[in-house]
Amino acid sequence: MKIMDIFGALKKDMDFIEQQLYRSIDGDDGILSETSLHLLKAGGKRLRPVFVLLGGKFGNYDLQQLQYIAVPLELIHSASLVHDDVIDDAETRRGKPTVKSKWDNRIAMYTGDYIYAKALMQVTQLGNPYIHRTLAKAMVQMSIGEMEQIRDFFNTEQSVRDYLLRIRRKTALLIAISCQLGAMAAEAPDKVNLLLYRYGYNVGMAFQIRDDLLDLFGTEKVIGKPPGSDMRQGNITLPVLYALQEPELREPLLREIRGIQAGDGSGDVSRAIEMIRTSPGIRRAEKLADRFIRKALDALSELPDNKSRAHLQEIAHFVNKRSY
Length: 324
What we know:
Layout: H1 3-9, H2 11-24, H3 30-41, H4 47-56, H5 63-88, E1 92-93, E2 96-97, H6 99-102, H7 105-123, H8 129-151, H9 160-185, H10 190-217, H11 220-223, H12 229-233, H13 238-244, H14 247-262, H15 269-277, H16 281-300, H17 307-321
Antiparallel strand pairs: 1-2
């Protein structure tokens, strides 16, 4: 089975979710609708809605109900990207101009807020208060994760544990609840909900580690932004932390990072990336991503054996080997 086969199997339902995404941000204000539409049209994998729908397959699958989970989760993810681009001063995302570069920072921030509000309006269509609380808690944790990332810009003394906690909040939690709440909205058994949460959490952790590796190895055409963007912005990722633990690399790599931070030309992103690429830190990061994927697959092994489980297995393998 290929990853595109999964999207093909869900195409009709995902087309419906896509329509509802566009419909959800239409209306109230011309400029906010325009900026929100610009963001959504930039595309994306729409993995979170896919996880919602696959989670729903473990219960009483009802697309009319699941849309009120799938649409808000994708909106929340999108809103977080708008805010990220302001913080990171990013000019492009997925190869297209960001909202902040096409308009300005103020409009970008209000666009993110607008999309968050639209997400909350969508989820109120469901009467389950646990779903509302779970979503609200995840949004709080995402905000904390964002603040932690800002706090740790160019912090080469942060620990691997600090990094893992940050990506748990920024990335893994939203993927985890995408799987969990899809099943919950479909009234799946509690055990299934918890196993899907565990699967999604571990896939989300691996997803972010792989994303950080792609930032070092990908091309701008493939990843939609210049390679080394994380380091330019001061985001010290797992492969960098591991490379800094190598005695012979630590001082030269620190010099480059300090020079990049100073912005005086004394640090070179390309030189820093080359050091990291050739370090054992790359393999160590890959091994940790592998470990998270194994945990995700272990959680799946306890779920009913159906097509959705097979699809989730394939997605886990795709996440761990993805090149885009």
